[in-house]
Amino acid sequence: MSAERPLIGRLRGPRRRAGSAAPQPPPEYASDGGDFPDPNRYDSWLGNLFADRLEPIDAACAGAGPDGFALFRDLDDDLWTILLSREYTVYPNIRALLPDLPDRALQRRWNGWTGLKLLSEGKAFYARTRAICARHAGPPLGEAKVLDFGCGWGRLTRFFARDVAPGSLFACDPVEEILAVCERTRVPATLARCEHIPQRLPFETSFDLVLAFSVFTHLSEPAHEACLRAIHRSLAPGGLLVVTLRPPAYLTACERMRLLVDSLGPDWPAELEKPRYLFVAHPAEPDHPQFHGAEMSYGETVISLAYVRERWAPYFELLDVGVLTEDMHQVVLALRRRS
To answer: How far is it, in rounded angstroms, from Cα 268 to Cα 284?
Structure first.
């Protein structure tokens, strides 16, 4: 991905005299230029615009445990996202309750973006998942067992902490080091390591909702089949699975995948109307976080919808397909477990 853009466009001010210094924007308008965010960046928004709503929540958060996350349920998604950014100091009790963020170097290494830009992409998937649950008669999230499969550092997991009851939010990942980051930053979920090619999930719980953001976008075909079977085994009857896949355009957007375009022929978009599974492995290097001492099962993946309809059908009914304008290379699929 390209370097992160400023969160707020530069405001056009009065014409300055030749040779005069450009006026400096306040810290809230600064772009994300490094690994150490300004802790006061959003104080002027939160303190001036939302004090009547946030001051009582901040007072209630003093000494609160996991039940305190329910205090945020009535806030809109954007305000919730800013609070999760932790780039403010005006509400110390809220900051003390909400999970920390990993340093920006790690965020950038794992996700390409950092800070509020990255959280806003997560917010879009979070909001879409909640809408899917409502549209397709999923259980209320407050009564559901929810799993973030392939959680990374918990950037999606933390969004659901206000909706899901304490003890009912779970997250797993095959990378021990990133799970340690989740623990260190206090991601409010039951955490466990899963295998890269799992036979089953590392929980005895039956889940009502499993989400897998940017997981099946990276798996080899055998690894994805194992993950599907393991998820199917752990979903309750009629449970929902929400995943993302790459769109066909990713074949030309991703340098690693462009090599496959020629193999599809001159009318490669038409080829993707057929059941196709396209995968290019990342180099099998010991320092790669997904390296597990065997053939590399992690890389770049494009799965056609025709493939999903044909090969996933024994396990799941495809309910819905959508895009996220915040990240056009993540196509959202909603599926229901078949018996």
So the answer is: 28
Could you tell me whether strands 235-245 and 327-337 are parallel, antiparallel, or unpaired per DSSP bridges? antiparallel
d(CA 179, CA 184): 9
Sign of the CA dihedral with 307 first, then 308, 314, and 318 last: negative
Query: 252-272, pLDDT tens digit by residue?
Result: 999 999 989 988 999 999 999
The total number of residues written for the chain in this structure: 339
- The answer to whether 123 touches 78, Cβ cutoff 8 Å, is yes
* H or E stretch covering 300: strand 299-303
Class of domain 104-337: alpha beta
Is the distance from CB of 62 to CB of 93 less than 8 angstroms?
yes
pLDDT in tens, 110-145: 998 889 999 999 999 999 999 999 999 878 999 999
Inter-CA distances, 57 with 69, 71, 117, 297, Å = 10, 6, 25, 45
Q: Please report how the helices 77-85 and 115-135 are oriented relative to each other, as an axis angle in degrees rounded to 10.
A: 140
Task: Give the pLDDT confidence of 296-321 residue by residue, as tens digits.
Answer: 899 999 999 999 999 999 999 999 99
Q: What is the pLDDT of residues 41-92, one digit of tens each?
A: 999 999 999 999 999 999 999 999 999 999 999 999 999 999 999 999 999 9
DSSP state of 219: B
Measured at the CA of 223, the angle between CA 217 and CA 226, to 5 degrees, comes to 115
Residue 224, token pair as written in the block: 């994805």
Domain boundaries, the chain: 37-97, 104-337
Q: What sign for the dihedral angle of Cα 175, 177, 181, 182?
A: positive
Higher pLDDT among residues 19 and 47, named by residue: 47
CB 126 within 8 A of CB 67: no
Chain center to CA of 3: 19
Q: What is the DSSP string of 150-163?
A: T-TTTTTGGGGGGT
**CA–CA distance, 298 with 286 (Å, rounded to integer):** 13
DSSP state, 19?
T
Strand partners, 147: 170, 210
